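chain below, 258 aa
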Amino acid sequence: MGCEGYSAIARVYDRLGAEIDYEKWADFAEACFDRFLPKRPELVLDLACGTGRMTRALAARGYDMIGADGSAEMLAEACSRPHDGILYLMQDMRSFELYGTVGAVTCCLDSVNYLLTEADLDACFSLVHNYLDPNGLFFFDVNTPYKFQHIYGGNAYLLEEELRDSDGSFSVYCGWQNTFCPETGICDFDLSLFEELPNGDYRRSDEHQQERCYSLETLLAALKRAKLEPLGVYSDFRFSAPTDTDERWYFCARAIKD
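prediction:
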């Protein structure tokens, strides 16, 4: 996990998410380092790193980076980019192993929501605690209950992108149907990708993904069970307090070790 279900869209994932400003995410991660750590960490794990855009953004700022993800296709995309000094590992979020501890762990773009049970949450958070230095920082974000109920819900979306490779430009369409069940807290995402071929035909690929909606209280309790001391929860990159209408919450926690 971290994430399964990205085989169809791995090749075009970055282009479909081109509007995501990873430099701002890296800025905020560093702001959290400066706020909560006596000095910036040297070695950082980017958990559920996907195609490695956040990993590379932090590596470019001088951090020694490890990127871990459960999708072979997403890691293949990460490794196809320049990645001098980055160690990429194919690892499940619930059972990853490192060679030693790190000063900080980042886990971005609602990857924690892909943990579908509280047992999964506990397994991941326990390993984060295990592989953090004493007082090391855990920085992650989640999609909020408001987003699951009002943005995802039962809505459908169509993403369109014009891509270019060595053979020229081609069109990609991604149809995205959401089905959110308030009783279980599970949101099913059914995606269909249509890629234009050189002869003008389209190739269709389908995949299914799921995320779990977690309350603020559930996440804070899981952190405490894992001996990760919650330091702050924010609604934006300005350290604003969370509200009931936020679409994303950002968490910082510290590893407490005996």
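The mean pLDDT is 92. The chain has two domains: 10-144+213-255, 147-211.
thats it, cya
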